[in-house]
Design brief:
heterodimer, A: 602 residues, alpha/beta, FAD/NAD(P)-binding domain, Flavocytochrome C3, Chain A, domain 1, 2 domains, seven-stranded mixed sheet, four-stranded antiparallel sheet, 35% helix, globular, B: 292 residues, Ubiquitin-like (UB roll), Fumarate Reductase Iron-sulfur Protein, Chain B, domain 2, five-stranded mixed sheet, 10 helices, binds iron/sulfur cluster, binds FE2/S2 (inorganic) cluster
Chain lengths: 602, 292
Amino acid sequence: MADYDVKELDVLVIGAGGAGLRAAIESASLGARTGVVCKSLLGKAHTVMAEGGIAAAMGNVWAEDNWKIHFRDTMRGGKMLNNWRMAQLHAQEAPDRVFELEEWGAAFDRTPDGRILQRDFGGHRYARLAHVGDRTGLEMIRTLQYKAIYLDDLEVFMECTVLRLLVEGGRVTGAIAYWRETGRFVVFRAKATVLATGGIGKAFRFTSASWEYTGDGHALALWAGADMLDMEFVQFHPTGMIWPPSARGILVTEGVRGDGGVLRNSEGRRFMFDYIPPFFAAETADNEAEADRWYDDKRNRRPPELLPRDEVARAINAEVKAGRGSPHGGVFLDIASRRSAEYIERRLPSMYEQFLELADVDITKEPMEVGPTCHYMMGGVRVEPDTCAATVPGLYAAGEVAGGMHGSNRLGGNSLGDLLVFGRRAGAAAAEFARSAGGLGPLDEAQVARICADALQPFANEQGESPYELHRELQQTMQDLVGIIRTESELAEARDRLVGLAARVPGLYAEGNRQFNPGWHLAIDLRAMVAVSTCITLSALERRESRGGHTRDDYPKPDPEYFGKHNHITRLEEDGTVSVHAEPLPEMPPELAELFEEATVS
Amino acid sequence: MTVTAEKLTETPTQTPLVTMRLWRGDATGGCFVDYEVEASEGEVVLDVVHRVQATQAPDLAVRWNCKAGKCGSCSAEVNGRPRLMCMTRMSTLPPGEAVTIAPMKTFPILKDLVSDVSFNYVVARQIPPLAPRPREADGTHRIAQVDIDRVQEFHKCIECFLCQDVCHVIRDHEGNKAHFAGPRFFVRAAALEMHPLDTLDRRPLLRHHLGLAYCNITKCCTEVCPVGIKITDNSIIPLKERVVDGYFDPIAWLGRKIRRKPARTPVTEPLAPQATAGANGPRPGRRSPGEA
Ligand code: SF4
Ligand code: SF4
Ligand code: FES
């Protein structure tokens, strides 16, 4: 009954977004036989949605910029919970990764003297984001895609979903997957496996994420026994579309604010001036005149609209709650009154189109209505910074699925750099592991048979319920109870509801046959979504403070003494429960620690 | 329960039921099936298709990812016209009439609204990639914005393949697929040929293998392109001119281009498909042996 194909590889990469493709390119270039598995067609991964740019301290626009300042911005944006070594590697290596993309054909916007142009973004001291208008992610994925397809040692397996990692003799030895088109199974046997599956946005109701974002990699790692890091930190991007309802959640790039857009409430007030936290007060303008001068003269302090995302999202939330929201329950993002139509259309062409097409709003003439949308998962697989190795041998993770790099809050522009820097590192380390770790023994067929049988269960549950309904309930639970503002009682309720949802997942019913059947696919994806949502909720319950993407109504302040010095580790115990415990942060070496001495650290 | 911004607008006004006439079936055949379903204000076709899926036809196959016109996954023929379902507002379709949705006709059908677009992935690999000139002495590439503008237009392509779907050269003549790359790949070739850093000359390839001459400039491709690339005017026609120049007046061609690309290496043969079965090619490795 377990009828499946077997493919032998050196390195298996799961996910074909920026991190997965960069990992595969590196691994194949080093001579490892590499396979990339992706749920969608090649070139459709969520990376295409990234708009703003790649943060890299190249110093093209501001010569004063360097990796140390980028490192410092990243750590401060993450409220010091970031893995310092990852933040350091990222800041040091991002420029080379950008130059490499240019060499592979990426058509970045240029400075007047012909170099790569860089734009301003929240939390970055200098204009630092290499970009292509407001569709940088598309440029990146296409460039990597068209680098990858010519490599002889690289195979792409499209529209193929991984069910479980194979674990044999305490080592990850590949994965079991099914072809979406036919529903048939395939075993990828690989000496090393790289997770590059992105995030978990689809567990929330209002999200900028696509259907693919079901936390697969997080769950695969968890089920394989790997440690997860700081799972409570979920980023709500402050500016998603909120009207019409069908467009709710679609991202409005931070570039709008970087290019001069400001946030106003229903009274027309630039309310961000009322929400400048002490942590950033020294570098944030406290009046409109200074804020407006900053765009042209960086000796001024930054406009508060460009505070890190967690600050802006919370501020918007508070304004709406105070009754000063826009008609549809958000706030106004206004660039029309501040920049010329020609400038807006040139700098933000996709935003212009998006609002015109989906909301009948001409952003060169009227303000946009925006509100927070679930955007990014900071927490993820715990990795060794230099190699991206997870805590189970043979397993690597890069990009959004990996934890540590962004601490409790990610700065805009640091994701695309993360994908490239750690995608490359994971690919190289996986290729090296595959070369040195020795061959694989005979396939554990019983394990494969079990996983296949489990995957087919939904077809047999004829009295079972619809996965679409269960998904809706999950999204509502996470949105309402584990969203931007959290509190003990609600988190506890979410935990209990998740136990109920988890119990219902095995009974979900899939109508029809195995051929390209979205209902069946969702029934399977929900296993991952519920597992990862549980990790998020349990970890959030334990963190009794507010920090970055995690805001507790009942503990509104950061706790510098304990939680500010601890990461949360989540793992699956033998009895099937998920445990959370705190672990002291790795200690930062003195030469890096001194970069923060002049700053107020919470 | 904490009141948060995202909870305040949850009751969109319902409009009367609409009829979605969706193609259901697979490679062996199928037919249109009508579904009566609610549609709310501001919705796009993809929203309503998803509602059919969630409430009436859980196994309805449809591709999508971004729901924002950025990934090019949700291509289909809506009321006979190739479009992105996620960027087609219900309010732009004739009220009171059934909305008919079929998969793209130019490609083999897999199931329901999903077609087999692997042809495109095969063609993609035949065109040699960028071969950049060396960097400047200071390690940078210096490119003026005006020189990259045109390439940026081409790079807007989201690979929705709607232009491939509409082009009569392959839509009406299956056999032409063997020697006609199609508008998407003329855009790709143009992006490479006009890239300020490139050093190859793909004109022989375009002429002899990619079938540039089959295009008779009907401009249907430009009309359907959801990101507004002027496929015919800005890529195909300039490529045709270059190919003609290259064959009849190589000196003039070289003279024009010599400033930026002094040494262009001509490419005459398409890159071969990879040795491993399915590598990067069509629906790579999807079927198990013995499967229909
Ligand atoms: S202009 Fe050429 S490529 Fe475009 S649809 Fe017409 S024949 Fe096809
Ligand atoms: S050129 Fe336009 S129509 Fe053709 S594939 Fe690209 S985006 Fe789609
Ligand atoms: S879903 Fe991405 S273009 Fe329609």
